[in-house]
Amino acid sequence: MKSIIVFALFATLTLGFRLSDDEDIFLRRIHGNCLEQNYIPSHFFSRRYEFRSSPAMAQHLHCLARNYGFISDMGHFDMDTLYSKLMEVCDVEDAQFIMNTCAIELESPYMTVTKFWYCLEEQGLPYMSRLLNYYR
């Protein structure tokens, strides 16, 4: 039964994932700023599971999260900001589920953000896939 609920959540989020124009522009801008600080080629995102443990990928994902405003330099989540960002792309129940599932602080800020962004992908919020569009 639990797997049916998770699948339904994944299908709902994946099919319904849409950033507002303002949020899309914001993500594009912070991605560009982070690339200026720590350039990584587009194939890191198209083949992101191969580069999951790459220090360059972790640095870029940390930069994105910091600039998005929902994580500190030390890897601590700002749950209010994270919640407001999630509410732009999903409903209350899904946002709470994702926060409980993905916003887990680990041993280092880089491990925390890497786990977080990949968890978002696994939950049907393809932010990293979206970054590929910004290379074109």
TrEMBL record:
Keywords: Signal. The keyword Signal applies. GO terms for molecular function: odorant binding. Residues 1-16 form the signal peptide. The keyword Mitochondrion does not apply. InterPro entries: PBP/GOBP (IPR006170), PBP_GOBP_sf (IPR036728). This is Uncharacterized protein. The lineage of its organism: Eukaryota, Metazoa, Ecdysozoa, Arthropoda, Hexapoda.
